[in-house]
Amino acid sequence: xxxxxxxxxxxxxxxxxxxxxxxxxxxxxxxxxxxxxxxxxxxxxxxxxxxxxxxxxxxxxxxxxxxxxxxxxxxxxxxxxxxxxxxxxxxxxxxxxxxxxxxxxxxxxxxxxxxxxxxxxxxxxxxxxxxxxxxxxxxxxxxxxxxxxxxxxxxxxxxxxxxxxxxxxxxxxxxxxxxxxxxxxxxxxxxxxxxxx
Length: 197
Prior knowledge:
This protein has helices at residues 3-16, 39-48, 68-71, 117-128; strands spanning 22-26, 29-34, 56-64, 78-86, 91-98, 106-108, 131-133, 162-167, 172-177. The chain is of the alpha/beta class and 197 residues long. The chain has one domain (3-148): Beta Polymerase, domain 2. It has a 5-stranded mixed beta sheet. Strand 4 and strand 5 form a beta hairpin. The radius of gyration is 22 Å and the shape is globular.
């Protein structure tokens, strides 16, 4: 671990205390895991505490752990991961919170803290079905309003549930069950003597 990450870890442990569920290093950044009941308060502290100063939320995404680690994962299924940046201290932090219920994944919205989270939270709702308590406009952002399900969930069918097409007789877009026929894809064989010719 670099000196900068060691300093950051020390500050996080000092300021947040028992609100830290876990801290570990991955890919040159620290990952801070917090409980869902502490998520909003920790986010405010990360932004407002001068010794931390995470003034920017760069990204927020949902994660479905149901098939993680060859389906041996035994923790909660859904998590929200935020990537934070402190320009004044020149460090980054990955903040992870797990939704306590798999059937109704709900975590607090951080849009009052970082307004850049608005569309990111809508995307996580649309693609994973994660709900954000306190978000004032939680609606689909990438799929259409009639879309059924959440396509980034691991149990979502690869071919989807319905498809849409334009019907020239009815002069409108219609939805119908998926009509994709399964096929076997045979790879082309590239022979060295004709390669690049």
